[in-house]
Amino acid sequence: MLVGVDAEAACVRIAVLAPIAWRVPPRHYGPWELFASLLTEGLVARGHDVTLFATGDSRTAAKLSSVVPRGWSEDPGIEPKVAECLHIAEVFERAAEFDIIHNGFDFLPLASSGLVETPVVTTIHGFSSPRILPVYERYNGSTTYVAISDADRHPRLEYAATIHHGIDTDAFALHPSPGGYLLFFGRIHPDKGTATAIDVARRVGLPLVIAGIIQDQGYFDRAVAPHVDGDRVRFVGPIDAAQRSEVLGGAHALLHLIDFDEPFGFSVAEAMASGTPVIAFDRGSMRELIEPGIAGFVVDDLEQAVAAVGQVRALDRRVIREHACRRFGLGRMVDAYLAVYEQVLSRG
């Protein structure tokens, strides 16, 4: 069994193909890179022979293979498409060295999957556009797909499993004195509802902390920056792994008032692992992640979000953390992926 920790015969040679926009693990932002890191380290801890294909400055207990020194989002001297072409080629030219290639890098690597005998497992992190679907359809059945939520499954694709992301729950803890502010944590982009969070905080009379990268500068300048006064609304920018537990755990609630169908939402799981309740609009995976009335509230509109800010005071933060550790523990995710690998390899 692949899930066996101490059976030498169960050791599998796994190539994990990460994106190269950011380092693995990311310093601040990079959900796909974070996933690649968590999965890689979890597989190594189980005794598997893992090679991580990522940027040269990545940190891992696995073997590291890289064609670029840094992520192209962090080094303007790197041409993204050229680097990605060489990066994908590197893993597939070495395909015979591995039992499984785990593609965590969207649809581009699928074009090489039919050229090698090594089976390819692809975690689909959502669909950036319906225009990329034909690539997934072309390799549907000849490769293996994993969804990160049931909400993100496309009806025209076949999936081996739905596997919610795991997180390092030990990196988060209950805060000794939470509740002083509301928190927005994510990309500053209309999809993520930063301006809506500002509106909710204003209506309930609580300060708002905004943390994350600015992905849409025009939106930030127009809808966010005019409200940032350093008091009622504070913008702290990206927060690294060392700061997340403190910032997430200290919040009265995380406002995840999204305007798109969220495939998963690392910040939601991380907030709950800190004992912080989440108030989210009912889009995408939110009902799969948040147990309403236990770990937060899933709401339909602005008025319900405002009402929920008061309602979360009655929630037990210790129970919220227990919920997150049970649902999003790293070991559960690793077990689930090993089961998929076993399924793939058993086909012969």
Distance between the termini: 15 Å
The best one-word shape is globular
Global structural class: alpha/beta
How many extended strands? 13
- Widest beta sheet: strand line-up: 3-2-1-4-5-6-7
Q: Using the 3D structure, state the CATH architecture of the largest domain.
A: 3-Layer(aba) Sandwich
Mean pLDDT: 95
- CATH class placement of the largest domain: Alpha Beta
CATH domain fold name of the largest domain: Rossmann fold
Helix content: 25-40%
Number of domains: 2
Radius of gyration: 20 Å
Number of helices: 12
CATH superfamily of the largest domain: Glycogen Phosphorylase B
Main sheet attributes: strand count, strand direction, barrel closure: 7 strands, parallel
Pattern of helices and strands? EHEEHEHEHEEEHEHEHEHEHEHHH
Could you list the spans in which at least 5 consecutive residues all have pLDDT below 50? 3-9
Strand content: 15-25%
Q: Which structural traits does this protein have?
A:
seven-stranded parallel sheet, alpha/beta, six-stranded parallel sheet, Rossmann fold, disordered N terminus, 348 residues
